[in-house]
Specification:
By secondary structure, the chain is α/β, with parallel strands linked by helices. It contains nine helices and nine strands. A seven-stranded parallel beta sheet has the order 3-2-1-4-5-6-9, with helices on both faces. A two-stranded parallel sheet has the order 7-8. Helix 2 crosses helix 9.
């Protein structure tokens, strides 16, 4: 049974109440779940959307409903527009978030896209587009967050939403796989560079996750079996499960963790095809 929003605030997660959190790509799926979960723990949340405020309406409604449910005073949520692949947008987005929340303590680099096409047919423009959002965008947001952490002289936390595909190759998605492989070393490099400033940089690597964007295979028994057959726990994860680990990494309970990727994947990275004992002898 999942914990209610009121219980989450009552139980708390150390160090999150009152923190200012920016979530990129926060209008649906994992990003939306992360935004709502942080709000349930008493954090102020800036939700990034891409084009129009209407894109963020559902997330905004959920966060407002959460705040009303837990009756947590002083918790705010704001909407900030920006395309993370565009430097000017990122700079303005951070300025908007800081102006409205009064500062920034946690960045969640969640915005991401993918293009499905055989690699020999993939255009340079599509490859660049995926890396522009997933990797370059994550760098730009991390850079702006780190600047503000350093200027304020306060601790900071960055969590990159990567993928099991930073380790597992994904044919027909070479741009996505390359971007997530790059995100792994982006995480480790920034973590090492700024550990002395009490700035922690970590990542989560979601496996197959139930989100609105992949209802096609979730609702198709044949396709669902093709996916879950490779997962030792025999099911896809939920956005809320990804959000829980993300909040943990931002909390004081993870204060000595940096440069790590936690795979939230039901064992997908354990090479499920080798579950049965076998021998080459």
């Amino acid at each position: 049974m999942s914990m209610t929003a009121a219980a989450r605030v009552s139980e708390g997660m150390r160090g999150l109440k009152g923190k200012n959190v920016l979530v990129t790509g926060g209008t649906s799926g994992i990003g939306q779940a992360i935004a709502v979960r942080f709000a349930e723990y008493g954090a102020n949340v800036a939700i990034n959307y891409l084009t129009t405020p209407d894109e963020a309406t559902e997330t905004g409604d959920k966060v407002h409903a959460c705040l009303k449910q837990v009756q947590q005073q002083g918790v705010r949520d704001v909407l900030v527009q920006g395309d993370v692949s565009k430097e000017d947008d990122v700079v303005r987005m951070f300025e908007d978030a800081v102006d409205q929340l009064g500062g920034i303590d946690v960045l969640i680099n969640n915005a991401g896209i993918q293009v499905s096409k055989p690699s020999h047919e993939l255009s340079a423009a599509d490859f660049d587009k995926v890396l522009g959002v997933n990797l370059r965008g994550s760098f730009l947001c991390a850079r702006e967050a780190i600047k503000r952490f350093l200027d304020a002289g306060t601790p900071g936390s960055i969590i990159n939403i990567s993928s099991v595909h930073q380790l597992i190759p994904k044919p027909n998605y070479v741009g996505y796989s390359a971007s997530k492989g790059g995100m792994q070393n982006l995480t480790r490099t920034l973590a090492l560079e700024y550990a002395g400033n009490n700035i922690r940089v970590n990542a989560i690597g979601p496996g197959a996750t139930v989100t609105p964007i992949n209802r096609a295979w979730i609702d198709d028994p044949v396709k669902r079996e093709m996916v879950t057959a490779h997962i030792p726990m025999a099911r896809a994860g939920t956005s809320d499960e990804m959000a829980g680990v993300t909040c943990f990494l931002a909390s004081d309970d993870a204060a000595y963790i940096t440069g790590q990727t936690i795979f939230v994947d039901g064992g997908l990275t354990l090479f499920a095809d080798f579950r049965e004992p076998w021998s080459s002898e």
